[in-house]
Design a protein that fits this description.
- The protein has about 130 residues and is mostly helical.
- The protein contains 8 helices and no strands.
- Helix 5 runs antiparallel to helix 8 and helix 6 crosses helix 8.
- The longest helix has 24 residues.
- GO terms for molecular function: methyltransferase activity.
């Protein structure tokens, strides 16, 4: 369901891999009985029109059912723990001109990427609390 990378792509305003995330949340939040029934129906691609027309915007994420929100919340926390430094440490480094200028160009770019990723993840945490 997730693909080779095993990751979902999140943007500032919506989930960019919404089909994969929707399907994954749907399956992971099913009871064992619901999963068996869903699997027996061979319904992996044939979902209702309502689900096909929905997008996972930030607003939609905040309206997910509680089990899905909890799953996303816990997943985001695990992802954030995988980073070496927290959001505040990255912000402090970005604000410290002297320390920032000591970084190589590549390290500066990596810092901006990590900081942006963490900002998006923190935004997601707020949406699914």
């Amino acid at each position: 369901m997730v693909g080779e990378e095993g990751a979902f792509v999140l943007g500032w305003d919506e989930v960019l891999t919404e089909e994969e995330l929707s399907m994954t949340l749907k399956v992971l939040c099913m009871s064992e009985e619901e999963f068996k029934e869903y699997k027996e129906q061979d319904g992996w691609e044939d979902d209702s029109e309502e689900e096909e027309n929905s997008t996972l915007s930030n607003e939609a994420l905040s309206r997910l059912k509680t089990p899905c929100k909890k799953l996303l919340y816990d997943s985001v926390l695990l992802t954030l723990e995988s980073y070496g430094a927290d959001l505040k440490a990255e912000q402090d480094l970005l604000n410290n001109r002297e320390a920032y200028e000591k970084l190589s160009r590549r390290e500066q770019q990596a810092l901006h990427v990590r900081y942006g990723q963490k900002k998006i993840l923190h935004q997601l945490l707020e949406l699914v609390q």
